[in-house]
C-alpha cells in the first residue's frame, strides 16, 4: 500500500480523508498544493508529511529553473518556510526541510538554478526511499522484543499510509505477523479523526493481519481482562529526555499501561527526535478545528453551537515509556542519561542537532 508517489513531475497523494471507501489520488503540481494537502490532512503521519514537504520544495524548484541563482534561492527558501508552518507538532517535517536547505546551501553562489533543482529532487527521493528502509529496520528491532505470540494494542495510524511505506509502530506489528509472533491487534478507533478505524483497520484488512477495532475507551477494560500484552504507538516528536508527543489519547494509554503493568513502547525513526528540546513541555501541540469533534463526515453530532476542544496531540512523560524502538536500536527506560548515551552511540548527525 502506498499513499505518496513522485512521478518525476507531480506529487500524487492518496486522499486519506476519503479512505477507506474511496481511493482518490490528488495530483500536486505546485508547492502550495502540497502545503494545502498537509494542512487539510490529505496526507498525514509524521514521516509522510516530511517526504511530501520535500517534494513540495522540489516542485517549487522545478518551476524556478529559469530564475537567476539568487532569485531561485530566495523563492525556494520562502516556500520551505511556508511548508514548515503547515503542521506544528511533527518534527520530521522540519528535519526534511533542513535536509533540503542543506542541499541548497552546499552550492556555490553562482550555481545554476537547474543544477540546484536537480539536487533537491534527488534529496527528496533519498528522503523517501530512506524512510522505507528505516521503517523496515524499526520493524526488525521492535519484533526482536517479543519471543512469543502477543496481543498488541495500537493507536492512530502509523503504517504505510503515515509513512512512505511499511510503517513505524505498525511496521513492528507487520514484522511480528510475518514472524508468526502476533496473535492479534487491538485497534483504537482514534477519535476524532478516526485514523484507527479508517486507516489502520484498512491497512490490516488489506494484509489479512488479525485485528479488532475498539472504541478508544475500551482499552482499560481489555487491559483489566488481561487481553493486551503490550501497547506500541508511533511518535510525532521526542524531546531530549524521552518525553514523546503523539496522537491525542496516547498519554492515557501509557497511564493505563503503568497501572496494569503492561509494557508501553514508542516506535519512531531518528528523524522524530528533537534534541533541541529539553522536555515534552517545549513541544508545540497542534489544536485543530473544533468542528472535527462536533461533526462527523459533515454531519453534526453535537447540538448546534456546542463548544468543543480539539487538541490533536498529547505528551507522554518518559517515565511511562518502557522503551523507544528506533532503526538504530532500542532505548530502554528513556530518560536524559539513556537518551544521551544513545545519541552518542548513533552520532548527532542522524538526529536533529
Ligand atoms: C508513523 S506516524 C507517527 C505519528 O505521526 C502518528 O502516530 C500520528 O500521531 C499521526 O497524526 P496525524 O494527525 O494523523 O498526522
UniProtKB/TrEMBL annotation:
One of its GO terms (molecular function) is S-methyl-5-thioribose-1-phosphate isomerase activity. Substrate binds at residues 44-46, 87, 195, 246-247. Its EC number is 5.3.1.23. The record marks 156 as: Transition state stabilizer. Keywords: Amino-acid biosynthesis, Isomerase, Methionine biosynthesis. The active site is at 236 (proton donor). The keyword Transmembrane helix does not apply. It catalyses: 5-(methylsulfanyl)-alpha-D-ribose 1-phosphate = 5-(methylsulfanyl)-D-ribulose 1-phosphate. The keyword Isomerase applies. Belongs to the EIF-2B alpha/beta/delta subunits family. MtnA subfamily. This is Methylthioribose-1-phosphate isomerase. It comes from Alicyclobacillus cycloheptanicus. The lineage of its organism: Bacteria, Bacillati, Bacillota, Bacilli, Bacillales.
Amino acid at each position: 500500500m502506498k499513499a505518496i508517489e513522485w512521478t518525476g513531475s507531480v506529487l500524487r497523494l492518496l486522499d486519506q480523508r476519503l479512505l477507506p471507501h474511496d481511493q482518490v489520488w490528488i495530483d500536486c503540481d505546485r508547492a502550495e498544493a502540497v502545503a494545502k494537502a498537509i494542512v487539510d490532512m490529505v496526507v498525514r503521519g509524521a514521516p509522510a508529511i516530511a517526504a511530501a514537504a520535500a517534494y513540495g520544495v522540489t516542485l517549487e524548484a522545478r518551476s524556478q529553473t529559469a530564475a537567476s541563482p539568487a532569485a531561485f534561492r530566495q523563492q525556494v527558501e520562502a516556500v520551505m518556510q511556508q511548508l514548515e508552518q503547515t503542521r506544528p507538532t511533527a518534527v520530521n517535517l522540519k528535519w526534511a526541510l533542513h535536509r533540503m536547505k542543506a542541499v541548497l546551501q552546499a552550492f556555490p553562489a553562482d550555481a545554476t538554478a537547474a543544477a540546484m533543482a536537480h539536487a533537491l529532487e534527488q534529496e527528496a527521493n533519498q528522503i523517501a526511499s530512506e524512510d522505507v528502509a528505516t521503517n523496515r529496520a524499526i520493524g526488525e528491532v521492535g519484533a526482536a522484543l517479543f519471543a512469543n505470540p502477543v496481543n498488541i494494542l495500537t493507536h492512530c495510524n502509523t503504517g504505510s499510509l503515515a509513512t512512505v511505506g511499511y510503517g513505524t509502530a505498525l511496521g513492528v506489528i507487520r514484522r511480528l505477523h510475518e514472524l508468526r509472533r502476533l496473535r492479534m491487534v487491538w485497534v483504537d478507533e482514534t477519535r476524532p479523526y478516526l485514523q484507527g478505524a479508517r486507516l489502520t483497520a484498512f491497512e490490516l484488512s488489506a494484509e489479512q493481519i488479525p485485528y479488532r477495532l475498539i472504541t478508544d475507551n475500551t482499552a482499560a477494560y481489555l487491559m483489566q481482562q488481561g487481553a493486551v500484552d503490550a501497547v506500541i504507538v508511533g511518535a510525532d516528536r521526542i524531546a531530549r529526555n524521552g518525553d514523546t508527543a503523539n496522537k491525542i489519547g496516547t498519554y492515557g494509554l501509557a497511564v493505563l499501561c503503568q497501572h496494569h503493568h503492561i509494557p508501553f513502547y514508542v516506535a519512531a525513526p531518528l528523524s522524530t527526535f528533537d534534541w533541541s528540546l529539553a522536555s515534552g513541555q517545549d513541544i508545540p501541540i497542534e489544536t485543530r478545528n473544533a468542528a472535527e469533534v462536533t461533526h462527523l463526515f459533515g454531519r453534526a453530532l453535537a447540538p448546534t453551537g456546542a463548544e468543543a476542544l480539539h487538541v490533536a496531540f498529547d505528551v507522554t512523560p518518559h517515565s511511562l515509556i518502557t522503551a523507544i524502538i528506533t532503526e538504530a536500536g532500542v532505548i530502554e527506560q528513556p530518560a536524559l542519561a539513556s537518551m544521551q548515551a544513545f545519541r552518542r552511540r548513533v552520532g548527532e548527525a542522524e538526529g536533529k542537532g
